[in-house]
Amino acid sequence: MTNNSHHKVVEVASTLLARLPRLHKPQNVNEKHAQSLGVNDRIALSVTNAMGTMWALYFMALFMGFWCLWQFLMREKAFDPYPFAFLLFLGNIVQLLLMPLIMVGQSILSKHAEMRADEQYKTTLTSYQDLEHIMEHLDAQDKELIRQTQMLMQLIQAQSEPDGGHSAAIAPGDRL
């Protein structure tokens, strides 16, 4: 084997065996986000998650319904008669306390969503780069298979010639 053909074999082998370094290792952003939360953040998330359920809505509706029915049944002894000014006052207090707390919780949840989106983008980009590398690898394999097939065809053709193929034998340095 000549030096040039040996170099060609090494080049093809290195193309087939080359691997890309891992540019991004996927991370569990849920754990990363949970570790970054402080006590206040955890309280805000707990309240946001609790208040953002249908059970919270049912509780509020039942509480208001019970309050109105209770005050209506007390008639003359009712301390909060219709239009239920004290109930409205309590509702406003709850709204004033929960509104900023829920906004903080939503902010924390949006940061988590941004972390997930960024991680998903990085992972997708790495997958795309891996696919590109795989396609290059498959192209190199296809070229090598075509080259070897052509070489085999030339050998078969040389063997089938009447003089035994000695005149058309493939020399080690021939480009196929």
Tell me what you see in this structure.
With 176 residues, the protein is an all-alpha fold. It has a domain of 105 residues. The protein contains five helices and no strands. It is rod-shaped and about 125 Å long. The mean pLDDT is 84.
Shape: rod-shaped
Mean pLDDT: 84
User: Strand portion, in percent?
Assistant: under 5%
Query: Termini, distance in Å?
Result: 14 Å
The strand count comes to: 0
Tally of contiguous helical segments: 5
Characteristics:
rod-shaped; 176 residues; mainly alpha
Question: Can you give me a brief rundown of this structure?
Answer:
This protein has 176 residues and is mainly alpha-helical.
Write the layout of secondary structure elements.
Blueprint: H1 3-17, H2 29-36, H3 39-51, H4 54-74, H5 85-160
